[in-house]
Amino acid sequence: MDTGVSVVGSGRVSGTPDVLRVMLGVELFAPDVATAVARVGERTEAVVAALRAHGIEGSRLSTSTVSVFQHYREPGTDVGYQASHTIQVESKELTGFGALLNAAVDAAGNSLTMNGLQFDIEDKSELLVQARELAFQQARAKAEHLASLAGFSLGAVSAIAETQNHFPIRRAAANASKGAPFDAAINVTPGDTSVEVTLEVHFAWA
Fold this sequence. Notes:
Number of strands: 9
Helix content: 25-40%
Order of helices and strands: EEHEEHEHEEEE
CATH architecture of the largest domain: 2-Layer Sandwich
Number of helices: 3
InterPro entries: 26kDa_periplasmic_antigen, SIMPL/DUF541
Strand content: 35-45%
CATH topology of the largest domain: Alpha-Beta Plaits
Radius of gyration: 25 Å
Largest sheet: 4 strands, antiparallel
CATH superfamily of the largest domain: Protein of unknown function (DUF541), domain 2
CATH class of the largest domain: Alpha Beta
Protein name: DUF541 domain-containing protein
Organism: Kribbella karoonensis
């Protein structure tokens, strides 16, 4: 067994989000599979066209899930089929959520679903560098303290293991005036986005 000390250090750094991600879906029920799939396809295409008309590039639209399943109703009634198509929408306009949602609703009506909203930082590489440096500093400080308590001196680092965590939303809010029509402005607040790096570091004794 290697001699020395193993410690864990962590560092967290926050940054300002620069991308909005929304999961929008179309879900429809029909008496047969072919009709369910066709209707979902048509309305999904309409939603995509509406979003692109609002400036969303094709590269920022991607399918997340597609499903078709048999839908059982009350005994004695006809069996139907439920089809759904979920797409991830990315936008650099962080305050444009209301306009995007309204456009999607206009295109899909009551068959539209929304499965989540997330603010994120597209390139987190610099934040990860800063968080990693903080984590290593904390790990070394712990190791030096333990070494002094044990009457040893720290030597070289013999092993490092890293874990990364991402916290897309620390604070978020959606506000709409009570009783206002649906096409009223919907304001969202991005808040902060954080990344955290945890390092397990093994120091040998000098």
